[in-house]
Amino acid sequence: MASQSPLYIGFDLSTQQLKGLVVNSDLKVVYLAKFDFDADSTGFDIKKGVLTNEAEHEVYAPVALWLQALDTVLSSLRQQGLDFSRVKGISGAGQQHGSVYWGHEAETLLQNLDSAKSLEEQLETAFSHPYSPNWQDASTQKECDEFDKVLGGQEELAQATGSKAHHRFTGPQILRFQRKYPEVYQKTARISLVSSFIASVFLGRVAPFDISDVCGMNLWNIKKGAYDVEALKLCAGKFGVEDLKKKLGEVPEDGGLHLGPVHPYYMKRYGFSPDCTVIPATGDNPATILALPLLPSDAMVSLGTSTTFLMSTPSYKPDPATHFFNHPTTAGLYMFMLCYKNGGLAREHVRDAINESLKDTPSQPWANFDKIALQTPPMGQRTATDPMKLGLFFPRPEIVPNLHSGQWRFTYDPTTGQLQETTEGWATPQDEARAIIESQMLSLRLRSRGLTQSPGNGLPAQPRRVYLVGGGSKNEAIAKVAGEILGGVEGVYKLDIGDNACALGAAYKAVWGMERQAGQTFEDLIGQRWQEEEFIEKIADGYQKGVFEQYGKAVEGFEKMEQQVLQQEGKK
Ligand SMILES: Nc1ncnc2c1ncn2[C@@H]1O[C@H](COP(=O)(O)OP(=O)(O)O)[C@@H](O)[C@H]1O
Ligand SMILES: O=C(CO)[C@@H](O)[C@H](O)COP(=O)(O)O
């Protein structure tokens, strides 16, 4: 009976909201509920989903907020008419790197969840520390320096763990945590990632880490498929490796593993069936590449709070400037990633400055930004002899490159190679609409060019397709500039699901985990059911001869500009 056909839920616990998205076995979305942390929560003094301690560059989120969000999203799905008894599998996507510190009572509290009470009410005391360090945190420079040295250098750490040390990575965060709060660390029985936290709450016991998301810790040796003992030793400090290993737990290799049935709390409170199974939740970026059957020649740009650039690839070529993760479902594949802190919020700053300068509050807040960005010629060159306008726009400290917050504006003459730091000729904020999109896309092109190949016919190396996802993927001005800079022989596409790609990828992971035949890969199962004409839409041209090559010159200026800024700011 069609009405009894199975359904699957994917949760996306991101920086600014929790989403719950329900699909059927044909991969079609049938329900969606959202909880916006700032707008919908009660009792938390958060801004953009987080709290900050500027003095120490700390950014963190209250874990109880996420529990409030989970119950509310489930209630909202019920109100929409979802029959939870049809849900056969649950998976999730969590903002990466964030850690949750469970106290010694946690397992008992999780096991004994009472359906008469909310999750927030009964799990508030399950944590040894009420906050989860957020990926935007920049408090761990000292710990990163130690991690970078632990295997010899940044290169070696990247070779082993897929990344050099980064402020937000969980290993450096745990190291700082155990030093700053030694008593709390001692009272911590288990540490979850945000992804395994989602799975834990549904299972009613602490769930293991996911094979892909564990690579965001600087603790997992990707080549060995095991924790890196030297990194663990550093991270555990005086508390010892064995104790830390217990806190972290095992890491199963199978991303489609059946972790167990959903806890009876959800059966009694929402009507889940006892055979609804929890499948490992992964990081939000690994989940995003599961939103479609991505080919190794395709690129995805996720325009969320952060900007990330993602590719699925069989090559493992780690470099201190990039990230490699295990693929979330398919052994032998990896996920390549670039991650920028100054994504959506940085673009919003320019958008707001433009609206303010025009004394306008349009009903579509991006209308002026988009119009101006599209009216501005590439690199702000109104005539062929004008210099290119290049800038870095970092309201928050940036990851790529590792730079403090600030704004830098330059002009660059590609014929002479002359680069000058100047605001002369810049109309501020108008010129910044196109310049900020260009700056973000040029950085992606600069750092991903080693992984792209020529599609043939004498064309330059570039992706086959560029898929845009995340909140910013609705924006056609951004899509147009993305295509001009990144190329893409077949064009720039957005998913019909818009900004919900990572919740969708999580739901697809649950479908695959529950419905796969023995040995069937994710790509095979999803590829067979995927309906291209219904699920994606071409929104901009990709490769345009001439424009792409001109932006190639801009990439050279961009690289020079970054080096100059890094050099001059390093001296300050
Ligand atoms: N029309 C739009 N144009 C550009 N950016 C947008 C638009 N709508 C939303 N955004 C951006 O999307 C971001 C949120 O993206 P989303 O993927 O939902 O967030 P998260 O990172 O929390 O998952 C916001 O920071 C906002 O700047
Ligand atoms: O730190 C990273 C990736 O390394 C971020 O991409 C986070 O995973 C959170 O992203 P949003 O979905 O909130 O933008």
TrEMBL record:
Keywords: ATP-binding, Carbohydrate metabolism, Cytoplasm, Kinase, Nucleotide-binding, Transferase, Xylose metabolism. It catalyses: D-xylulose + ATP = D-xylulose 5-phosphate + ADP + H(+). Its EC number is 2.7.1.17. Residues 135-290 form the Carbohydrate kinase FGGY N-terminal domain. It is found in: Cytoplasm. One of its GO terms (biological process) is xylulose metabolic process. The keyword Secreted does not apply. Gene3D superfamilies: 3.30.420.40. One of its GO terms (molecular function) is ATP binding. The keyword Kinase applies. Pfam families: FGGY_C (PF02782), FGGY_N (PF00370). Highly specific D-xylulose kinase which participates in the catabolism of xylose. Xylose is a major component of hemicelluloses such as xylan. Most fungi utilize D-xylose via three enzymatic reactions, xylose reductase (XR), xylitol dehydrogenase (XDH), and xylulokinase, to form xylulose 5-phosphate, which enters pentose phosphate pathway. Belongs to the FGGY kinase family. This is Xylulose kinase.
